[in-house]
Specification:
2 domains; mainly alpha; elongated; single chain; 6 helices; 77 residues
C-alpha cells in the first residue's frame, strides 16, 4: 500500500523534493537513475540500426560496451 502511495506521488515531485524525501544528495548517482539512463540508451538502438550504423558505432555513440548492444539486439528477435 505504501509503495502505491509513494509511486503515485513521484510524478508530481521535483528532483529536489525527491532528494529531500529520500535523503539522497544526488538522485542521478542512484542505481535507479543509472538504470533509467541505460534503458533510455538501449531504446535508441533500433533507430540507430535502421540508420545503418554498425554495432560498434552504436556502442561508441551511446558509450556502451559492444556486448551490451549485441545482447539488446539479440533480445529484440
Amino acid at each position: 500500500m505504501l509503495e502505491v502511495i509513494v509511486l503515485a506521488k513521484l510524478p508530481q515531485m521535483s528532483r529536489q523534493e525527491l532528494e529531500a524525501m529520500f535523503g539522497v544528495e544526488d538522485l542521478r548517482k542512484t542505481r535507479f537513475a543509472q538504470e533509467l539512463k541505460l534503458e533510455a540508451k538501449l531504446e535508441t538502438i533500433p533507430q540507430l540500426l535502421k540508420e545503418g550504423l554498425s554495432v560498434e558505432k552504436i556502442a561508441n555513440i551511446l558509450q556502451l560496451d559492444v556486448e551490451q548492444v549485441r545482447q539488446f539486439i539479440n533480445n529484440l528477435n
